[in-house]
Amino acid sequence: MEQVTPVYILSGFLGSGKTTLLQRLLEHWKALGERPAVVMNELGEVNLDGLLVEQSVPMAELLGGCICCSIRGDLSTELATLMKKESPDVVIIEATGAANPLEIVDGVTETSLYQKVELKGLITVVDAAHLLELYRAQQGQTYRLMQEQIRCASVLVMNKTDRITEAEALEISAVLRKWNAYAPIMPAVRCELPVAELLSQAGGVITEPRPAEAKAGLAAGEAEPVGSPETSAHPTHDHVMAYTHYFKHAVDSHEFEQFVKELPRDVYRAKGIVSFSDTSSRFLFQYAYRESDFMKITPQGEVPDVAVFIGEHFSSGELRHRLLQLEMSAIPRPVKVRRGL
Ligand SMILES: Nc1nc2c(ncn2[C@@H]2O[C@H](COP(=O)(O)OP(=O)(O)OP(=O)(O)O)[C@@H](O)[C@H]2O)c(=O)[nH]1
Predict the structure, then answer these.
(1) Whose CA is nearest to atom 27 of ligand 1?
(2) Does the complex come out with an ipTM higher than 0.90?
(3) Region (Disordered) spans which residues (predicted)?
(4) What value does the mean pLDDT of the chain take?
């Protein structure tokens, strides 16, 4: 299968340290010989943070508005253009501090409907001192936005710990844990932390079959059972907020509709393009707040069969397993011929 490009969203309130972390991430990828690309969003008309990024890094800029509201549609267009033009190994989206990350998740997953990109994780950088101040006051829009950014994170960087005492660090950790029971918390000063660990903690859903499964399961027509060590040994996959599934086979329309109906409550949004084994058309499906909708489509150009699920802390391993089962059950089996004596 063609390479799927991982995408990370970098969120965090204004001045929390996102650009500082971005620079560390870029250094890390470059040291590994990978080609990162950046999507930067600034509320102003000039991208000042962009000036801090090395010129050799391909960059798309969304200026003069916030990704999550005024220029949301542009995000998926910009991301798709960047992908086509630069074919990066990894993409990082730095949102304005005022953005609601869930809207950005929506923009990225929109792109995965027609480009092979996969949202790997949402990193939220928290200014520990600022959060403490707001937490003590317990009010204001900033406070609520910060809370939202923390709630959706797959990993939390508790930055600027040089500005708080040890006792305050414990207090802030408890607040973060209360708002987000799943994301690992990494304390840091100037976002100095083990980047490889940060990225692995950020979650990431495996879309490629693991070698053992490809050999044994899929080839022999049997997917691994849910809860087997293979699926359950990845606890970090269970708090991701988006799971992207690229189909290798068509699925039965009735079984797929049933699967969508039975989606866990924690999945509140899903969308995708699927081919059904029992009809010749392709369908665009939408699912939001327990209602689904299927529309016949004829996509222009090459578009993969893909489904994206967005929610909070659902088990992506289980969804993946169910989808693989659907794919397997729709593959026509060879007819067994009994040989007479
Ligand atoms: N004291 C202290 N300052 C820090 C730390 N990390 C970053 N800073 C400073 O905080 C300021 C803001 O950092 P940035 O990385 O630009 O933050 P940002 O989230 O990208 O800011 P916006 O683009 O405005 O949203 C800069 O002056 C940094 O040098 C830290 O751990 N401690």
Answers:
(1) 15
(2) yes
(3) 213-235
(4) 78
- Using the mean position of ligand 1's atoms as its centre, give its distance from the Cα of residue 103 in Å: 24
Collapse the DSSP code of 235 into the 3-class scheme (helix H, G, I; strand E, B; otherwise coil) and give the result.
helix
- Our answer on whether the CB atom of 124 is closer than 6 Å to any ligand 1 atom is no
All structural domains of the chain with their residue ranges: 5-201, 211-329
Ligand 1 pocket mutation pick from 11, 19, 41, 42 by most atoms within 8 angstroms of CB: 19
CATH no. of 5-201 = 3.40.50.300
Please tell me if the CB atom of residue 16 comes closer than 6 angstroms to any atom of ligand 1: yes
Please state the atom number of ligand 1 nearest to the C-alpha of residue 14.
25
Cβ-contact 230, 212 below 8 angstroms: yes
CB-count exposure of residue 121 (10 Å: 0-12, 13-18, 19+): buried
The fold for domain 211-329 equals Hypothetical Protein Yjia; Chain: A;domain 2 (3.30.1220)
Per CATH, 5-201 and 211-329 having the same topology is answered no
Choice from 11, 190, 192 to test ligand 1 binding pocket (greatest atom count within 8 A of CB): 190
Nearest CA to ligand 1 atom 13: 17
Dist. CA 149 → ligand 1 center (Å)? 17
Residue 175: CB partners within 8 Å, gap ≥ 6?
131, 135
| Higher pLDDT, residue 309 or 88 | 88
pTM of the prediction?
0.70
Largest CA distance in the chain: 86
User: Phi then psi for 238, rounded to 5 degrees?
Assistant: -90, 0
